[in-house]
Amino acid sequence: MIFFSERIKSEGNMKKNWYTIALLALILVMEGCGGSRPSRFFILTSTVQKNSPEDRPDSLRIGIGTIRFPEYLNRPQIVSHKTANELNLAEFYRWAEPLQENLARILAENLSQLIGTDHVFILPWQTVTNLDYRIFLEIRRFELNTESKVVLVAVWQIVSGKDKRPVVHRRSEIFREADSLNYNSLAESMSHTLEILSREMADELTKVHGNR
Question: What is the pTM of this model?
Fold first, then answer.
């Protein structure tokens, strides 16, 4: 009888311990969910000053072709360098859309403002005819380096829309100090480097078109 009573008491204690463990586990899970760090999302933006309508002759028709990206940049996390050979992928600081698509859209917007035309198109061009020029771009680097500078390295080509003949082939290497070590400032600095690249392209387009 005594043994039976002790057995019941022992089983009761085991159940109580399991309930306690389960309750603690549930509390930990709930605290983990409630205290998880929210992600923040960023985009590139156009930093080119907007032209007034009278400054926009709508003459040139420009197509932006495939923009090639290195695979290490083709991800939602914002990438920076820890060392020359080690990258940091910011898990809680992400691009709001694929960086490749964001860059293409802002490049088109920049060129539209700089050249003064509303006719800048992004691939595909199935419904676009009579392009004056096509731009092809390969991004080789576009991130924060170990010296807290945004680096943008790109190889690009301007091709005649009529005879498909390359008229410009350039490599651009652009550096800009990050305003501070926070991701909002980093996105702003990256937007400014893209503006510099856009200006280089716009200058070449204006030059080539003026020599026709």
Answer: 0.80
Cβ burial 54-66 (10 Å sphere, 16+ → b, else e): eeeeeebbbbbbe
Q: Do residues 69 and 14 share a domain?
A: no
Which amino acid would we find at residue 60?
L
State how far the Cα of 136 lies from the Cα of 127, in Å rounded to an integer: 19
| Domain housing 23 | 1-36
Q: How many domains does the chain have?
A: 2
CA separation for the pair 34, 37 (Å, rounded): 9
Domain match, 58 and 11 both: no
Contact 43, 187 (CB under 8 A): yes
User: What confidence tens digit (pLDDT) does each residue in 134-189 have?
Assistant: 999 999 999 999 999 999 999 999 999 988 999 999 999 999 998 667 999 999 99
The amino acid at residue 187 is: A
Q: Are 31 and 129 in the same domain? A: no
Q: In sequence order, what DSSP letters do the residues of 128-195 get, joined into one string?
A: ----SEEEEEEEEEEEE-TTSEEEEEEEEEEEETTT--EEEEEEEEEEEE-SSSSHHHHHHHHHHHHH
First-to-last alpha carbon distance for the chain, in angstroms, is 109
Residues whose CB is less than 8 angstroms from the CB of residue 50 and which lie 6 or more positions away in sequence, other chains included? 113
* Cβ atoms of residues 67 and 137 within 8 Å: yes
Asked whether 154 and 139 are in contact (CB, 8 A), the reply is yes
